[in-house]
Amino acid sequence: MERNPREDAKPEASGLTMRTFECKCCGIEINYEYKGRTPPYEPSIVFLEDGYFRRDPFADVKRPLFIGADCNVCSRPVCAQPTCSLFFTKRFCAACAKQYAEGFPLELRPDLEKLQAMPVAPATFDVDYGIRTSS
Ligand SMILES: [Zn+2]
Ligand SMILES: [Zn+2]
Questions:
Q1: Ligand found nearest the CA of 123
Q2: Would strands 29-32 and 90-93 be described as parallel, antiparallel, or unpaired?
Q3: What is the pTM of this model?
Q4: How many CB atoms lie within 10 A of CB 111?
Q5: 130 belongs to a structural domain
């Protein structure tokens, strides 16, 4: 299928609304269309985590771009860059991954070292992140 420029201008036409994903680690802002495990572009793909997705305008529509996901510990959205988050059975933001570094297998050490420090303090379980504003 050819890329349709009108589709880019009007994502609602596909039933998906563009929202803005903001990585809490590096601050990057990326528009996304879908959050979940089964992006509607290709029903046979099921991801291991609820991620933020958009179609890749430069690639096959069936290969959605994985932008990032919510940290499983502190619920902050973090992008998929190796400096911002790590996936080990679930998604960890840089701060939480560092906090729980002892629990990761040795093979993940190089990945842990790539993570940059978060500009915000690491979350603990008693912070108010338990209360998430519904959108
Ligand atoms: Zn990031
Ligand atoms: Zn976290």
A1: 2
A2: unpaired
A3: 0.73
A4: 15
A5: no
Ligand with the closest atom to the CA of 94: 2
Number of domains in the chain: 1
Whether residue 84 is contained in a domain is answered as yes
pLDDT tens sequence across 79-127: 999 999 999 999 999 999 999 999 999 999 999 999 987 655 444 443 3
Nearest bound ligand to CA 68?
A: 1
Q: Is residue 131 part of a domain?
A: no
**Which residue has 């499983």 as its token pair?**
72
Does some domain include residue 93? yes
Cα of 84 from ligand 2 centre, angstroms: 10
Tell me the pLDDT tens digit for each residue of 12-24.
455 678 999 999 9
Q: Which amino acid is at 87?
A: F
CA 105 – ligand 1 centroid, Å: 23
Domain with 97, as residue range(s), is 15-118
